[in-house]
Amino acid sequence: MAPLLRLLAGVAALLLAAGVSPASASSSAVDLGVNWGSQCTHQLDPSEVVRMLKANGIMKVKLFDADPWPVGALLDSGIEVMLGIPNDMLEAMSSYGNAEDWVAENATSYGDRLKLRYVAVGNEPFLKSYNGSFMETTVPALKNIQKALDEAGIGDTVKATVPLNADVYVGDKPSEGKFRPDIDGVMTNMVKFMHDHGAPFVVNIYPFLSLYQSDNFPFEFAFFDGGRSIQDNGGVSYSNVFDANYDTLVSALKKAGVPGLKVIIGEVGWPTDGNKNANPKLARRFYDGLLKKMAKNEGTHLRQGKMDVYLFGLFDEDMKSIAPGNFERH
Length: 330
Hints:
Blueprint: H1 3-7, H2 11-17, E1 32-36, H3 46-55, E2 60-63, H4 68-74, E3 80-85, H5 90-93, H6 96-106, E4 116-121, H7 138-151, E5 159-161, E6 164-165, E7 169-170, E8 178-179, H8 184-196, E9 201-204, H9 207-213, E10 230-231, E11 237-238, H10 241-255, E12 263-268, H11 280-296, E13 308-311
Helix pairs in contact: 2-11, 6-7
GO molecular function, one term: hydrolase activity, hydrolyzing O-glycosyl compounds
Signal peptide: 1-25
Keywords: Glycosidase, Hydrolase, Signal
């Protein structure tokens, strides 16, 4: 069984403990999705993966490309799908004709058999480490894909978006959140387009990375049960970095003029190997806290209610770059 599915084997019990009724105690009851990556040397048969997803109540999947092999297994499954367009295709998608071809091949060709909900245009294209490589092509690609979806007659139900790393916004406190100064213009343009077309903002939030990147980061603040808190303006208290990070984004969206833009957590998770803090025990602690939080539908201080979340990731991927750290493959 995939590492994440082993950790989620007790999902129903966790949700019951959080007060969710037996009739609804499944991961789909709390909008739980999962990222399905493919950078591994020994891939499971996609039909078996789909069987495991459904057996664990996971009815939403995010893919990083549109490979027909896994997509084919998702046909007629009832699983909601977010298809990805890799960063190295963004320049091509800046041509409307290419965007039109992509939609024809990967969206409309499957008809109603594929429960396509979102197209992820790029993946964290504004990372600081990319040095602006995709700054000129991301928004044109986004707009072309949405236009192609609209022209194909499916734009009302399929929305184009751009999964972004949490480094696109900054703020010492959640209430002070704003988009990074070097990308403020392009981010404001993009979120207003998303708002006008009914698309969500997709963000990847990793409390593990906060801990990994700074020896001074308070360990307990990375978890939902740590008992550590920080104070924001007006006496607001945050007990974990996930909520604080999420609300920093909400503040940034407000400053950009789209305070009500829907937010989806495109990736959140905890590695099980490759670092002193990457192990199954801490991963279980993190997932336990996240799932219980989701089951309560409490949201955050600035955005209360149900959260839409995709866990990362379904499998260990032994072909991934370890430049970010050895944990990246786990």
